[in-house]
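// run 5 | inverse folding | seed 20
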């Protein structure tokens, strides 16, 4: 940082123009890193004017702004970064082009003291490339230096001079489009391995403050399971056996059910002259047509002919 940049930075601090939060956009989602009790604007915006917009608070409360000024491309909700307001907000908005279609965006508000991780937990498959990053939160306060501590306590110093072509240990390099001058601290792992699963610590030294800050990132590397030809053949054989057993069982059940229905039909037709489905039950029919001098034994709910 040159003398002019130092002077401008000091002037901004003295007049209080540096906001304590930093907004980071990733695809559709947004992360806001703020200091505790900092005033934060949660902004919902689109490339075209909006007709309606609203927010869902992390606690589930819904807020809708109906009367937007014509041509307004955004709406915002102002909060203080307290424990009650941190978490995941959902932005809901409707544009003038598609007024019936609701669009959403997730905005995470997190408290960080001047330096914090962008993603607190990352999950990747073994062999995939993955980037870990931390940033200074007061807009883009430059970093004097930064480094990462791996789960195996290896210290990796990172800057823009470490590229993929000259990666540390042929595995770690500074992410593209990142800069210490903008307050970015990052490392890209070319091929993640299970030994790198665990808690990574990122350290950043903020210029002018003569102080080091730290935050942590949990990296989960899932083992990649390769299906060999032997395992595939065994799996296919098991599948064939299971399918054959299912077909045989289904066929046996259908045969049994068919025989049962046929027997019921013949029983009613032969012995009582009745077919299945008549209104009278077996017991009532037997009692009506039994021989008068046949003694009856009452066994409670059932009447049996003796």
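// decoded
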């Amino acid at each position: 940082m040159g003398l002019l940049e130092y002077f401008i930075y000091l002037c901004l601090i003295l007049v209080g123009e540096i906001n304590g939060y930093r907004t980071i956009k990733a695809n559709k989602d947004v992360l806001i890193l703020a200091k505790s009790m900092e005033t934060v604007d949660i902004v919902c915006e689109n490339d075209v004017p909006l007709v309606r917009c609203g927010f869902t608070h992390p606690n589930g409360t819904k807020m809708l702004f109906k009367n937007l000024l014509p041509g307004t491309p955004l709406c915002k909700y102002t909060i203080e970064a307290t424990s009650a307001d941190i978490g995941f907000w959902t932005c809901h908005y409707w544009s003038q082009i598609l007024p019936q279609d609701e669009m959403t965006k997730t905005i995470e508000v997190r408290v960080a003291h001047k330096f914090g991780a962008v993603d607190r937990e990352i999950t990747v498959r073994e062999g995939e490339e993955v980037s870990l990053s931390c940033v200074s939160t007061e807009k883009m306060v430059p970093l004097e230096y930064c480094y990462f501590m791996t789960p195996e306590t290896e210290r990796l110093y990172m800057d823009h001079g470490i590229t993929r072509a000259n990666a540390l240990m042929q595995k770690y390099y500074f992410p593209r489009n990142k800069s210490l001058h903008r307050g970015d601290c990052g490392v890209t792992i070319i091929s993640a391995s299970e030994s790198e699963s665990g808690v990574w610590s990122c350290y950043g030294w903020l210029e002018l403050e003569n102080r080091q800050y730290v935050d942590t990132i949990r990296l989960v590397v899932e083992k990649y399971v390769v299906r060999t030809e032997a395992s595939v053949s065994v799996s296919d054989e098991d599948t064939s056996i299971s399918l054959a057993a299912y077909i045989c069982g289904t066929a046996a059940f259908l045969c049994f059910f068919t025989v049962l229905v046929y027997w019921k039909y013949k029983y009613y037709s032969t012995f009582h002259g009745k077919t299945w489905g008549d209104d009278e039950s077996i017991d009532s029919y037997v009692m009506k047509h039994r021989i008068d001098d046949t003694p009856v034994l009452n066994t409670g709910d059932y009447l049996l002919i003796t």
